[in-house]
Amino acid sequence: MSKPALLSLQQTLRKSFHNLENNQKIWTTVLSECSPLMESLGNLAEQLRALSNVQISNTPLRNFPDLEERLRFKLLQATDTVLGKLNDKMSALQSVRDAISNQVSAVFQLYEQNTDSLDLLTVTERSATNPSTADMLEWLQDAERYYRQQFLRRKTLLQTLRADDLSLLESTPKRWKSLESPGAEERITDTLCKVSFFMESQ
Q: Which tens digit of pLDDT belongs to each residue from 1-54?
């Protein structure tokens, strides 16, 4: 077993878990910023539906020229604005996904470069404060997969949305919420707890 190879891998693992911890916070913040935007989208769709269902010509508002067209234009414009903000949020989520993927990829590349000098006993050995290298590699891989899949599902949902498809827009807040995976998020938090001593040790 090569001690320098093990130390180098452990240092990269530490860096990866710090990266994961920071990016988990960013991810959570960005998702919490998406929630009110999703609600706005649903509300705008309801307003557009109500406007379609009302005959303005049969109300006292008929005296205002082009009122229905103006209201529709304003609501569609507001919908486009919200969709634009959601696309900006998706860019932030993509940055998180990319940062985690790149870091995990770097760890596995380093591990593969040193497999000849890292025996099975070394990578499976654990202590009271440090999980095994094999466990940590697996946890990083699980986290990377989770963020990659979450990003893809959310991006796919947003790509299906159109300002003129009211049924789709009205169901978006519920569909977005259905993508939440508190169990997986909790597992990542648990992982960070399991490696907390390892992250602080040098």
A: 468 888 899 999 999 999 999 999 999 999 999 999 999 999 999 999 988 888
Neighbours of 11 (CB within 10 A): 12
Among 185, 112, 97, 79, residue whose Cα is nearest residue 147: 97
User: In 10 A of CB 199, how many CB atoms?
Assistant: 15
Exposure of 185 in the CB half-sphere (CA atoms within 13 A): 12
pLDDT per position as a tens digit, 80-120 = 999 999 999 999 999 999 999 999 999 999 999 988 888 88
For residue 116, give every residue at least 6 positions away whose Cβ sits within 8 Å of its Cβ, in sequence order, or none: none
Q: Is 127 left (phi over 0), alpha (psi -120 to 50) or beta?
A: beta
pTM, to two decimals: 0.89
